[in-house]
User: Fold this.
Amino acid sequence: HLKNVAKYNQYTNAFVDLTQPDHIRSQAIESTRRWESGTAKSAVDGAVMGYKMNFCTSDLRTTCSSAMLENFKAPYTATAIELLEKAGVIMGGKINMDEFGMGSHNVYSHAGPARNPFEILGRSTEEIQELEARSAGGSSGGSAAAVASNMCFAALGSDTGGSVRLPASYCGVVGFKPSYGRISRWGLVAYASSLDTVGTLTKTVSDAQTIYDIMAKEDPKDSTCLTERQRKAIADTLNPIDLTRLKDQDVNAKPLLGVRVGIPQEFNLAELAPATKDLWRRGIQVLKDAGAVVIPVSLPNTKLAVGAYFTLATAEASSNLQRYDGIRYGHQSDKNDEKDALYSHTRMEGFGKEVKRRILLGTYVLTSGSFDNFFLRAQKIRQMVRNDFDRVFSRRNAITGSCGNLVEDFESDNSAATRVHALLTPVAVSTAPKLKDVIGDQIDPVDAFLDDIFTIPASLAGIPSMSVPFGTCTKDGFPMGLQIMSQYGDEEMVFKVAKVIE
Ligand code: GLN
Assistant:
């Protein structure tokens, strides 16, 4: 960690605040002693992790990359991080992000943009200076860049509409967003509470699984976090795959025997780069070779998802960000000349351009004149997107109880053959764009919303989804990922399929 931070942090701008090296060393020594005496706390005891700047920690600042929280130090630590600390993980530092999680390229940051490290590994300083910097993705761009450049074993990100999966695809690492409610959000600064999910960035699928297992626990401090009883009930609804009919085949050589994977036709957009289509095709072949049955499926409401997401996310953000008023904490303007002016000066100075845009949009959709037309309609679309998934998955949604059409239909063999355990899609329309093309006024903010087109449906439905690196683009040599989704609560299926893709 220390060596690679010295080497790569200046370029990537991933870590914004770092733990004192001496502190890291002494914790590492303690951990080594535990390993030597056979008392290691977990498989990741002594591993160094980085945390996105929107996770509260009582040690370093929690700025959310905003001038509003420039000097904010939280009085407590997020539950997810507490659990990791109990498992012996060492905090390497806090990481760059888009302000309050709003963005797809980590360019809306008070700490400056994060840069994609993919091209710089193994190059000399002079060579690096010649390169045109690429986007690390966002909003957890710093987290993906930190893991990709080996500055930490793993990093925490947050995923509201794709913020862990998109940067993972751009930087060539594994990005995992578990089901909504699996990991406590206590201590994760809210952007859009009904969508915010704690996610991980790691080098491998099994690393993601290891740290997910540590964090996926009941937490009385977050009422949306699943209780142990609910977790058990979910596990009971996930009926096991019936392998009895396949007994003649070698299950070991074909790890996906009995698994059906769907290819959603609506994700096959005209805008998709040929290299992306090619990658997807290769992914399908890999799954087939592993014994999976791959079939086309339809998620008809996919095209409505982006509009619904940005209506709901901005509405929730406008409400969540009311708390930054300069009175209780955070930035306070020193211009206080007239009545009410303190609030407006504070917010004008403290928030960046994109955040202000989202607050305005969100406030607008919540006004009485547009509430029915925008907010309620978006909620209905969200339900339609959820139903689309329930209709294609063979496993029942433990939360809604829904499994598409009729129960008899669901249980009959005939219908089972058209239902799937998982879905495979691209993560992003293309590879990481050049930073100069996505910075400042180079990009229309509404066009930028389309970067999340493939990741948003899983966020609206709250289902688990993972971005797994799958080779590089034949055109520019940059990494690209494939996305695996499965039914609510079925993280195990995501891991199973992802390990074959990886
Ligand atoms: N890019 C999306 C947005 O700006 C997703 C962000 C996220 O997942 N935090 O809202």
User: Anything to note?
Assistant: The longest strand covers residues 465-472. The chain is about 40% helix and 10% strand.
